[in-house]
């Protein structure tokens, strides 16, 4: 519980700092670096939110707010669709046997969507676990044009 308050305080401090953030005070090069940093943080925060929501769901915390379905509860708090929230929660479950992918996800190297694709590929391709995903190289899942 102490760690929760401490971590929550750190997130609150980051949000306070971002409120006064003004990109025009930075060079173009610095802004390009910050885009990468913010993207990594965004992925890590989305993962932490989903891991936390999965744990809250295990403890039936969503029911205390009148939600029968954890994905409905998560979507309300995250501002996403129930389908997206359900997909994210399912991705977390799928990563139980994929420790390298989970580590890449929690460190912000890959997004929840990328991790879902990795998990699907690992389930479909008969190969040693996580052989399709060399780390720490980020993966690009765009379709070729």
Summarize the structure.
With 145 residues, this protein is an all-alpha fold. It has helices at residues 2-19, 28-58, 61-64, 70-78, 82-94, 99-106, 112-124.
Element-level helix/strand string: HHHHHHH
Tell me the fraction of residues in β-strands, as a range.
Answer: under 5%
Radius of gyration: 17 Å
Q: Which stretches are low in confidence, meaning pLDDT under 50 for 5 or more residues running?
A: none
Number of helices: 7
The description of the largest β-sheet is: none
Mean pLDDT: 89
Any idea what the shape is? Answer: globular
Q: Could you give the distance between the termini?
A: 49 Å
Backbone structural class: mainly alpha
Could you list some keywords that capture this structure?
145 residues
SSE inventory with pairings:
Blueprint: H1 2-19, H2 28-58, H3 61-64, H4 70-78, H5 82-94, H6 99-106, H7 112-124
Could you describe the 3D structure shown?
- The protein is mostly helical and 145 residues long.
- It has a domain of 92 residues.
- 66% of the residues lie in helices and 0% in strands.
- It is built from 7 helices and no strands.
- The chain starts with a helix and ends in a 21-residue tail after the last helix.
- The mean pLDDT is 89.
């Amino acid at each position: 519980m102490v760690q929760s308050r401490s971590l929550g305080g750190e997130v609150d401090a980051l949000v306070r700092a971002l409120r006064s953030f003004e990109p025009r005070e930075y060079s173009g090069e610095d802004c390009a670096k910050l885009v990468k940093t913010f993207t990594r943080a965004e992925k890590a925060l989305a993962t932490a939110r989903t891991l936390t929501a999965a744990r809250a769901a295990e403890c039936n915390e969503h029911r205390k707010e009148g939600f029968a379905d954890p994905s409905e509860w998560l979507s309300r708090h995250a501002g996403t669709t129930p389908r997206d929230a359900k997909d994210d929660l399912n991705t977390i479950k799928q990563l139980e046997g994929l420790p390298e992918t989970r580590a890449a996800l929690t460190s912000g190297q890959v997004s929840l969507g990328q991790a879902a694709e990795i998990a699907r590929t690992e389930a479909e391709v008969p190969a040693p676990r996580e052989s399709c995903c060399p780390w720490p190289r980020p993966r690009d899942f765009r379709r070729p044009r």
